[in-house]
Automatic annotation (TrEMBL):
Basic and acidic residues bias locations: 101-114
Domain Chitin-binding type-2 span(s) in chain numbering: 28-84
SMART domains with a match to the protein in the record: ChtBD2
Lineage: Eukaryota, Fungi, Dikarya, Ascomycota, Pezizomycotina
Name the record gives this protein: Chitin binding domain protein Peritrophin-A, putative (AFU_orthologue AFUA_7G00670)
Region (Disordered): 90-121
PROSITE patterns per the UniProt record, alphabetical: CHIT_BIND_II
InterPro entries: Chitin-bd_dom, Chitin-bd_dom_sf
Keyword Signal in annotation: yes
Keyword entries, A-Z: Signal
Length: 121
């Protein structure tokens, strides 16, 4: 049982490391420990250089996305790379749907509405 779990974990780790992702360093290269950079295929994911100089793909928490400008996960609506995708932040908070690109939920400053239109501010 333990061997099966270990092999499954190893296979999953290898598939992530060997997946064709342009943002990850080429196989055989190393990165600076502590450095982080976005996964250009998914704004909710990013890479962080772990001990030994190996990149590790990580996922931001619910409602957040990786912000290359500040180097950490931030609210989705603040992350430029996520603005090109339509999403409804307020549905997670129990808001009653959205219309005309606006979601009737409150942001961290207490203002209503989050833009969910593609590429608009």
């Amino acid at each position: 049982m333990q061997l099966t779990k270990t092999l499954s974990l190893l296979a999953a780790s290898l598939s992530v490391l060997l997946a064709p992702v342009t943002a990850a360093p080429a196989p055989g290269t190393s990165c600076h420990v502590g450095a982080s950079w976005p996964d250009h295929h998914d704004c909710h994911k990013f890479f962080e250089c772990a001990a030994g100089g190996h990149p590790v793909r990580k996922t931001c928490g619910p409602g957040t996305a990786y912000s290359p400008e500040i180097g950490v996960c931030d609210y989705e609506w603040k992350v430029r790379s996520c603005r090109a995708h339509s999403w409804t932040h307020g549905a997670e908070e129990g808001a009653s749907g959205s219309h005309s690109g606006w979601d009737k939920s409150k942001n961290e400053k207490g203002h209503e509405g989050h833009w969910s239109g593609a590429g608009r501010h």
